[in-house]
Recover the amino acids of this structure.
């Protein structure tokens, strides 16, 4: 029988600044520290006073606190050492610069008494210090209860620090010391593959410190090749293989969780300098293929963490196919990956930045977003008399108008254009068209127009006076009317 209700394992490395505050948050739990809590402090080769602080607390609470010391080997190895000394029924892995809310253990204890069938319980995670607010996954905690992973596959639990696990469920596992980060999430979800459920409480929360000088493993790891191929193989692929072995399939929950954690990799704009050899690059892409083959498209499309462009990129990576299809009779064009439409080009708007007159020309500037490279797209204006004025691609002054890339692959393009239309004494109207040209395919599409917030003509105010002309917009068509001096003065002094 366990000596304590809870064992809390804390890995420590050079954290003298915050360590006492963190330890005190455990000692001051309202459940009663001496009767219910074992605190295991594992110093991972600190060079500051962290070990001295840990030992001073061990001397003060010899029956409850155990201070261990080891050579530096990483947080996973420190936690593994702590696991060997657990005397509690439920174990938690508390970070040494964070804080527990005063009622954390009493809330967890109450929930476990009501739900003895549950072996994993988690609580919301909130930031403090230099950043405050809720963690983006806190939607899971809106209602207290039990999460069935078959029903709520999109409720991933990734933090071992904000979870409590029955020691019987974790005793046969250990943290993977080869993982640069993610070992806690991997181990927790190995347990959840077995359990297929976990409890959630919302009357307490875990306080996660965010420092301004953030220098955590997670922040620095992204510059290491271990963040890419090694993490994919030892974390994601390992979970997938274990799920296949135990459950006979990769359950949607594991698919969703793997895809969520892969976001830091997939959204990397450029990783050309990460790898040293072509063999390493090929190994990375092979790992990516080995993982994405197990991720269903419906999981990708339903994911909360990715926007539309990112989802389409992942589908492209999964299928390794990207091609265009056109229907000239209906003026429609698609970019597809297998049968999935990545872009419906005929549905995309032409965005207007501004309209002005310049040296007896009407100038229309804007952009068109798509997954087409610049050479495949052009914009033109066609007047009611049949005159055609081709747009010229320009460099935009706006910072968000560059190419959006993922994993070194250019994916989203914003074609910035400027069209000049000569002004004369005649009134005229014109419409804007998109031309798509690729290989032997060519199609002209009439696109809807919208206006950016900074534009001088909008849907709400669809008319402006420029020098000797009035320019208005109605029913997706621009109208240019020459104005008399009387009309110009009236416009200037009215309102």
């Amino acid at each position: 029988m366990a000596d304590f209700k809870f064992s809390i394992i804390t890995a420590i490395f050079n954290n003298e600044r915050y360590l006492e505050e963190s330890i005190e948050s455990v000692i001051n739990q309202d459940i009663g520290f001496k009767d219910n809590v074992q605190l295991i402090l594992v110093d991972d080769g600190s060079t500051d006073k962290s070990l001295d602080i840990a030992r001073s607390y061990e001397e003060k609470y010899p029956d409850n606190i155990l201070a261990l010391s080891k050579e530096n080997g990483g947080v996973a190895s420190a936690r593994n050492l702590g696991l060997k000394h657990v005397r509690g029924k439920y174990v938690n892995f508390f970070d040494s610069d964070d804080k527990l809310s005063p009622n954390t253990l009493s809330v967890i204890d109450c929930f476990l008494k009501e739900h003895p069938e549950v072996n994993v319980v988690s609580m919301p995670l909130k930031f403090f210090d230099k950043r405050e607010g809720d963690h983006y996954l806190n939607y899971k905690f809106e209602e207290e209860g039990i999460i069935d992973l078959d029903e709520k596959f999109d409720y991933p639990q990734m933090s071992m620090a904000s979870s409590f696990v029955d020691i019987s469920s974790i005793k046969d596992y250990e943290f993977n010391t080869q993982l640069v980060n993610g070992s806690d999430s991997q181990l927790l979800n190995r347990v959840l593959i077995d359990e297929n459920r976990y409890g959630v409480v919302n009357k307490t929360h875990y306080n996660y410190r965010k420092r301004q000088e953030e220098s955590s493993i997670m922040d620095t790891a992204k510059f290491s090749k271990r963040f890419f191929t090694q993490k994919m193989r030892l974390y994601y692929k390992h979970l997938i293989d274990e799920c296949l072995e135990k459950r006979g399939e990769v359950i949607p929950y594991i698919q969703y969780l793997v895809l969520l954690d892969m976001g830091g990799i997939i959204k990397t704009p450029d990783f050309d300098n990460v790898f040293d050899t072509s063999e390493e690059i090929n190994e990375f892409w092979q790992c990516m293929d080995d993982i994405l083959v197990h991720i269903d498209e419906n999981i990708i499309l339903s994911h909360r963490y990715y926007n539309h462009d990112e989802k389409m990129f992942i589908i492209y990576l999964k299928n390794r196919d990207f091609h265009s299809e056109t229907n000239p009779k209906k003026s429609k064009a698609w970019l597809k990956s297998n049968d999935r439409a990545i872009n419906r080009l005929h549905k995309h708007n032409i965005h207007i930045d501004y309209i002005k007159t310049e040296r007896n020309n009407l100038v229309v500037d804007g952009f068109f977003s798509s997954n087409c490279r610049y050479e495949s797209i052009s914009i033109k204006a066609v007047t009611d008399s049949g005159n055609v004025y081709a747009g010229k691609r320009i460099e935009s002054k706006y910072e968000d108008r560059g190419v959006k890339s993922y994993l070194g692959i250019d994916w989203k393009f914003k074609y910035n254009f400027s069209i000049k239309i000569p002004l004369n004494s005649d009134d005229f109207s014109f419409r804007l068209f998109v031309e798509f040209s690729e290989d032997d395919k060519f199609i002209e599409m009439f696109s809807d127009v919208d206006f950016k917030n900074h534009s001088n003509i909008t849907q709400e105010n669809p008319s402006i006076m420029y020098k000797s002309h009035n320019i208005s917009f109605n029913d997706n068509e621009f109208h240019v009317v020459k104005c008399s001096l009387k009309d110009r003065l009236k416009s200037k002094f009215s309102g």
